Amino acid sequence: MPTKPTVDSIDASILDALSAEPRATVIALAARTGLSRNTVQARLNKFDQNSTLRSFERRIDPATLGYPLNAVIMTGVTQRKLSDIAVALEAIPEVTEVQGLSGVTDLLIQVVARDADDLYRIAGRILDIDGVEQTTTALVMRQLVDFRLHPLVRELAAEE
User: Fold this and answer.
1) Which of the 8 DSSP states describes residue 40?
2) Residue 1: is its pLDDT beyond 60?
3) Which of 40, 74, 118, 124 is 20 to 30 A from 53 (CA-CA)?
4) Contact, 73 vs 111, CB < 8 A?
């Protein structure tokens, strides 16, 4: 079922400029997009109100913090305990992201670890959570494409 974008080409041009320079001021965004400062400010306010922009957090390389190992833990859970499981996962600092899935596994948990023994400890801690039925751990060998939305934003900005 196709969904209509909630941003127009003007929004997309601002988002494109913001993606290219996340620290840009309203004045710099206006100059880059050719829009008035008031238009840019109004659109940014709208983005804040409708949660278009997620929290700004610098992408830190976990290896610089002593966590060079990345892994995904595919997890089967008791569905009625999902809320409690999510709270328990949030309490594990090495858990960097959790996604609920449809299909053969219920959760995709991304974790970082110091080494293989540390990963074993983290996986065990996850398996100990009440409602977690099974886990399968896979090491991330290489990041081939980082998370990105810039190509989609640029494409929408080009539409008129």
Assistant:
1) H
2) no
3) 74
4) yes
Long-range contacts of 35-42, Cβ-Cβ distance < 8 Å, separation of 24 or more? 35/10, 39/10, 40/14
Q: Which residues contact 143 (CB under 8 A, 6 or more apart)?
A: 70
Residue 134 to residue 73: CA distance in whole angstroms: 10
- Residue with tokens 């009625």, as numbered in its chain: 80
pTM beyond cutoff 0.85: no
Which pairing describes strands 95-100 and 69-77: parallel, antiparallel, or unpaired? Answer: unpaired
Q: Where are the alpha helices (H) located in the chain, listed in sequence order? A: 9-20, 26-33, 37-49, 82-90, 116-127, 150-158
Find where tokens 């409708």 sit: 50
Please write the tens of the pLDDT for every residue from 15-59. Answer: 999 988 888 999 999 999 999 999 999 999 999 888 888 877 677
Query: Do residues 76 and 106 make contact, with C-beta atoms less than 8 angstroms apart?
Result: yes
DSSP 49: H
Q: How far is CA 123 from the centre of its chain?
A: 21
